[in-house]
Amino acid sequence: MTPYTAVPLEPHQETALPEWVDYNGHMNVAYYVMVFDHGTDKLLDHIGLGKDYREQTGQTLFVVESHVTYEYEVRAGDGLRVTSLILGHDDKRLHVFHHMLRTENDVLAATNELMFVHVDLAARRSATFPQQAVRRIEALTKAQSALPRPPQAGRAIGLKTKGSVVP
User: Fold this and answer.
1) Bridge partners (DSSP) listed for residue 68
2) Per-residue pLDDT tens over the stretch 90-105
3) Which candidate, 18, 101, 105, 110, has a CA 20 to 30 Å from the CA of 83?
4) What is the architecture of the domain spanning 12-143?
5) Alpha helices of 27-127 — where are they, by DSSP H?
6) Domain ranges in the chain?
7) Exposed, middle or buried: residue 57 (CB in 10 Å: 0-12, 13-18, 19+)?
8) What is the reported pTM?
């Protein structure tokens, strides 16, 4: 078991397809995000907030912020495994972190940090989570509590050089 295995949630797995490869010979950034999105779908299904939940309740989760780091190249044919950690939540938001590992050697290929907001689709406004969702989120958070906080979590992007416009 790697340190990124987020028990008890089974990781999402898929293989990088040749059509996902760009002119640099590795997977294009858009497909990293797509693979992470597939991992998100698995996580949301696990905690009862996936597609079925949206269809039954008219409520869903929207991503309001996303950060991706690229750690190691992914090429066509590489097997990929996405693990998911819940870093935090409140009554309307869910903070999630994904690791993408190459299955051949468990090398960390990329990470994805996401902030979601729970939304009532009829009102198109944020809404509090239902209690059963809170219980599932808290159960998974507790099950993952011994896992280390990823070092990439909370990172910001910017230049810190003389003449930079970034404060």
Assistant:
1) 112
2) 999 999 999 999 999 9
3) 18
4) Roll (3.10)
5) 29-46, 51-57
6) 12-143
7) middle
8) 0.90
